[in-house]
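Archive transcription. Copying these from loose printouts into the bound notebook so they stop getting lost. Printout 1 of 2:
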Amino acid sequence: VQLQASGGGLVQPGGSLRLSCATSGFTFDDSTISWFRQAPGKERQGISCISGRDESTRYADSVKGRFTISRDNAKNTVTLQMNSLEPEDTAVYYCARGCTVVAGKIELYGIKDWGKGTLVTVSS
């Protein structure tokens, strides 16, 4: 099983970035994929996930309305479009297989596999 996040970089506040998660080694169509992020000195936070066949989505309140998750089942990839970026969005972003939501919060447990992260820095 492999998941690899890419697309991170340096962007000014108010700017946009598009992250991609390339996957292999499992049945992608049936799998829920999620995005997490971890800022320096903070816990890893679930920010979005998208389910397999019905492509239902979940977002953390901190990114709702600014980030959009989507998937391409033909290419086994998931994309996270990030708009109106803020300095508080600075973090290493990870994609993962699985998603557990409890009381509206995307939890860390229940993740089957993690990918390597990609760094997003929002700064002027």
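Printout 2 of 2:
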Amino acid sequence: QATLLESGGGSVQAGESLTLSCVYSGTESDRNCVAWFRRVPGKQREGIARIYTSTGTTQYVGSVEGRFTISRDETKNTVYLQMRRLNVEDTGIYYCAATFVCLDWPLDETAFRSWGQGTQVTVSS
């Protein structure tokens, strides 16, 4: 299993930006697919973006597409989630997760074997 460590969460005003980082370790097969999930108050945890670290291929859920960008820096073993034009509905705990393959969309969290501890993002109006 990969080991994942998120950072970058915090409190911002609506309309502002925030970038989350996920530093990973493990074999390439352990983290071939890295995704960001979030749990917003009152809802189940949802996968919002994924990236295949070998190819850079990305996919986003509709509520964040165009505002969020997932990327990776293989030299730093890090996956980023750049979040722009944040709104109060983006408030929640954000998790980084990794697995070998993640074909399902919407993302199936049971397919992910490795998880970070989560980082809180709070957006106020």
